[in-house]
Amino acid sequence: MSGELLDKSYEPEKVEKKWYEFWENENLFVANDDDDISLRYSIVIPPPNVTGVLHMGHALNVTLQDILCRYQKLLGKNIFWLPGTDHAGIATQNVVEKQLSAKNMTRHDLGREKFIEEVWKWREEYGGTIIRQLKRLGSSCDWTRERFTMDEGLSKAVKKVFVRLYNEGLIYKGNYIINWCPRCNTALADIEVDHEEVQGNLYYIRYPFENKKEGLIVATTRPETMLGDTAVAVNPDDPRYAGLKDNKVLLPLVNKFIPIIKDKYVDIEFGTGALKVTPAHDPNDFEIGVRHNLPLVKVIGDNGLMTEEAGRFSGMDRFKCRESVVKALKDEGLIEKIVPNPHNIGHCYRCKTIIEPNLSKQWFVNVKPLAEKAILAVKNGQTKIIPEIWTNTYFEWLNNIKDWCISRQIWWGHQIPAWTCKNCLSINVSDETPDKCAFCGGNELIQEEDVLDTWFSSALWPFSTMGWPENTNLLKLFYPTSVLVTGFDILFFWVARMMMMGIHFMEDVPFKDVYVHALVRDEEGKKMSKSKGNVIDPLNVITTYGTDAFRFTLAAFAAQGRDIKLSESRIEGYRHFINKLWNATRFSLMHLGNTPFILKSEPVFLPDKWIISKLFTAITTVEDALNNYRFNDAASALYKFVWHEFCDWYLEAIKPVLYGKIGNDHREATLNVLSCVMANTIILLHPFIPFVTEEIWNKLPETEGSIMKASFPLKDGKEQFIKLSIEAEENMEFLTGIINGIRNIRGEMNIQPSLAVEVVICSDDKPKNDLIKQYESMVSDLARLKSLSIQGHGERPSSAASSIYKDAIIFVKLEGILEFDKEIQRLENNLQKVRSELLSLSKKLRNDGFRENAPKEVIQKVKERQEGLIEQEDKLLKNLDKIKEFASEANKE
User: Fold this and answer.
1) C-alpha dist (Å) from residue 502 to 151, 397, 466, 779
2) According to the model, what pLDDT value does residue 890 have?
């Protein structure tokens, strides 16, 4: 296939499908689990929800992983990138329940077993959507080993882990405050709760003392929970309550006395410093209740209705109850005041119902002992978090970790492997279904209805997916994994839990590095959301601009610790970069024939020496950047090298050679350098833009097979060119400086590109003058010169525009080139337009209505436009003065 010409234009849709199918058919993504060599590299993909579709977060995450895997493969490593999906318990169950609802059915109509069958059918039909979309992104995952958190092997691992943790006393069942969704009727993990600011109130309520005179004033945002209060707490250091004589207050509406307790948790600055304690409906109150042995009174049921404990408010909806409680308190004169109070409220991430912190009997993991080891592993460097700023966040969460509620009241998921004996009520925990009670021998056992939190199975992902509890070759070779690429939003809920489980069950960390990438936001830095209408669909972008342009854009903006501000215009810009590469390759192939890409000898022609030096710089920069997860630095170096150094300078500099105008004696050597640079550039770019580089690779001279089997450009032999390279770069920099100086004058003086000009260079630097003479034809060709003369410093030519580069003064003769009167008129017309717009903008910025009502970003854009016009005005005035001076000189002559 090599040596062929490229099509006139690059058409992604023709190329992408072809090459992805080729990679898969050739098994280029498949890891070798018989390979015991040390060069191994492994990543487990953060498993997207089986209900998911590709969004910007997925696209960034997977693109960065793919860049790493393709790069490491070029380094000769055995790559294992393990893909899979998460069963997403609540989300998937909701999807299937909605389908049933459309048929006027509920899951209860089917029963558990039939409902689970329906979910599996749905997964079979729709669960592969996200995987197909990841493939379209170019993901080089080992699809032959794709896993699912509910597949047979992972289900076996989940049971083993549960049983072992239970037997070790780390899993228990007990009462605790959990996030409860009354709509989904299940407990929720913290990450499954979305906090949104709502406009609420702060209610100041008087709890009378025993003598019913005066009392304590408490402030609360949820007055309906007071029906379950079992104490009022004050801080022992609060001077306002130092002399408090009463030790009880009357609980309003319930008419029972509750104790006044002292606890340092109480915030002296909040409200009145007196805190109503409702242990059954607030996690912090629960902890206070445990410390003070307070009773637990549950007044809001799992269905969101008030319980019998709520007395006369029993059966009411919780929010209706709030209204009734406030009215009753007002009637009794116990509301001191009501103050508007915007505050964050937790909502179910699926159905958006306001969650209820509720007392519930659930299964928990005592994670404190596991967390201590996970903290130590990062402290001693076994796992490194990048960027380091996230390390403290990781420590803070693990140091303050609470027991993990792992049970969910749904049907889709890993059913908890615990059975209660009807005879003796003992709990039997086993990874196999027991036929009799281990305690009394009874044979009537009832399995727990609840399933495990989705994050429980996900926490085992790095080792369960490789075959644990069996000691497989995959585990021996690829655990611990090399790196985890993830978003910061799941650093606690997933990364930390994988660390805890991996260390506990594998006695080693699950990954050596954790690279935490930022968020993809819109071009103004706002979070993307459907409601705001600022979402960019990755699939639409891929269809419009191609996968490679999209991937390169993401990499180019993936700076550590900084969110990505994305717009379609930026993606379009990198599509131009792909086109630039394509056209440069197409031009090169027209001349290369079968020229080999291995350098035969040391280059002689200056542009050849220079581009080889720049290539080595690019190789070094990309290698260092990717080794340290600086994706943007690698992309920036490649962009600069390809566009500015290779295309803008090198290809233009060698055109006279390629077309036989100069240097026929080194044409073959230049073609050899061109072939070498072209091939190595394509290899360097491959991890970022895999499709277009594969297409080009298979058209380059003497290439065979896929670019995925190529080797990353090595720096072997660089030492012999070090001195030469420095000299070549200095000399080429000088010549390009001269050429740019001439080009700048042409631009400022509005000289048409087709007009050849006469140039005089005044310099007393003999080596530099000799260099200009040696490469006079190249300078003349690139700067479009009629003549080029060199002389020492002295009298300047008349009617000539000038600029200075280092010690050289560049003069471009204007007489006969420029019609001074017409140029003066053109500049004055442009100046008038600029001043007219400046006047308009100044009026707008002085307008009070505009300044007060226009969005900040609009005002900022107007200011930036004003600054640009001021610069433009200054430049026009200087050019106008120059032209008038030249015109005056010409008139004198």
Assistant:
1) 20, 18, 12, 63
2) 60
